[in-house]
Amino acid sequence: MVFVLGVVLFALGIAASVALHECGHMWAAQRLGMKVRRYFVGFGPKVFSVQRGETEYGLKALPFGGFCDIAGMTALDEIEPEELDRAMYRQKTWKRLVVMSSGIAMNFVLGFILIMVLAVGWGLPNLNGDPTVSVTSASCVAPTQAEDGTLAECSGTGPGQRAGLLPSDVIVKVNDVTTHTSTDVVKETQSATGIVQFTVERGDETLTIPVQVERVQRWVIDNETKEKRSETVGAIGVGLNTAGPAPTQYNPLSAIPASVAFTGDMFVKTLHGLAQMPSKVVDLWHAVTGGERDPETPISVVGASAIGGQAAERGYWDTFIILLASLNFFLGAFNLLPLLPLDGGHMAVTIYEKIRNSLRSRRGLPAGPPVDYLKLLPATYVVIVIGGAYMLLTLTADIVNPIQLFP
């Protein structure tokens, strides 16, 4: 029940983010004298609407976004004669840019507010700090593993337990290799034979514990082909968990500069993730066709909502909030891309018209006509088709092979 509640709450959070994005466009347009004909949350059949002044506000049946209908957003729009002077495409460049960027700004503001809530309520994690890997459990080592990941039964104590590894021990080295994640520890352990030196931090002490590695059968993922294969590897029978540095909690006043700095770090990571999206197609395809799902691959609304539900089920509301904040930063950054039909594409057209008209003015020529969007339709269709295919691939991966962030 808590999982379902978390999924619903996260989905509502996404819907609210999109609705507020469109509110940013609407409020800016109304403030700058443009006519907003309609503002709706959702798509599809109309559930209800109400007329307030010259704007129709309403709700549609499918809660997957929303839209704000500004009269004359492009020269192709049909407008009434009385709307001509207030048509968006006839306004000054700065006004058009303010309207188109206000939705993006709304996502950034909402993300910042969520980070402020996180800073005061739970504390901000250190995004630039090195993560650590700790022992969560110690048990026997299963001799074999089925292809679906199921381990064979075992009994007694395992190598790690016999050597003295304890839950909460932080593993900092395997032999001479520094380890920051559970993947690092597993990689070094699986390739080892004989006695391996585990350097651990236990409270204020740093200990070196020799562990006799057992050789067992496991299914592993080939790094190049992304295919599973059965191998004999080393194992010591301990559960592992990777965690970042402890979060720092702030009061409402000190949270402001801390949240600004944290938001800057998140924005850099968002841009990096955005730049990596094309290279993740192969990883998504492997996930859909049965390979292991890379946790760094993009997720759809469905996948994000499922992770939000998992976080709520386990009481990780800080993870829930930071995931929703990350989504808002991503929506804002994605819409900045200079591609139609994104906001950034419309902004690029507006800037182009301004530069072109300035050059024409220097030559004593009148301003040129609005950009013919019909000529841009082929490029727009390409963006829509590629974007739609990418979204479908991500959605499929989230359904057949979802990301598992929690043990």
Structure description:
The chain is of the alpha+beta class and 407 residues long. Helix content is 45%, strand content 21%. The chain has 10 helices and 10 strands. A hairpin with a 2-residue loop joins strand 6 and strand 7. Helix 7 runs antiparallel to helix 8. The longest helix has 30 residues. The radius of gyration is 27 Å and the shape is elongated. The relative contact order is 0.13. The mean pLDDT is 90.
Provide a compact summary of the structure.
With 407 residues, the protein is an alpha+beta fold. Helix content is 45%, strand content 21%. The chain crosses the membrane at residues 104-124, 379-400.
- How confident is the prediction overall: mean pLDDT? 90
Number of strands: 10
C-alpha-based Rg, rounded: 27 Å
Quaternary state, please? single chain
What overall geometry do the principal axes of the alpha carbons give? Answer: elongated
CA(first)-CA(last) distance: 19 Å
Helix content range: 40-55%
Family: Belongs to the peptidase M50B family.
Pfam family, one: Peptidase_M50
InterPro entries: PDZ_sf, Pept_M50_Zn, Peptidase_M50
Subcellular location: Membrane
Question: What descriptive keywords fit this protein?
Answer:
six-stranded antiparallel beta sheet; 407 residues; transmembrane helix; alpha+beta; two-stranded antiparallel ribbon
Secondary-structure blueprint:
Layout: H1 2-31, E1 36-52, E2 55-70, H2 93-121, E3 132-138, H3 159-163, E4 170-174, E5 177-178, H4 182-190, E6 195-202, E7 205-212, E8 214-221, E9 228-235, E10 238-243, H5 255-276, H6 281-288, H7 301-313, H8 317-335, H9 343-362, H10 373-400
Antiparallel strand pairs: 1-2, 3-4, 3-10, 4-5, 4-6, 6-7, 8-9
Helix pairs in contact: 1-2, 1-7, 1-8, 2-5, 2-8, 2-9, 5-8, 6-10, 7-8
Protein name: Zinc metalloprotease Rip1
Cofactor: Zn(2+)
Membrane topology: Multi-pass membrane protein
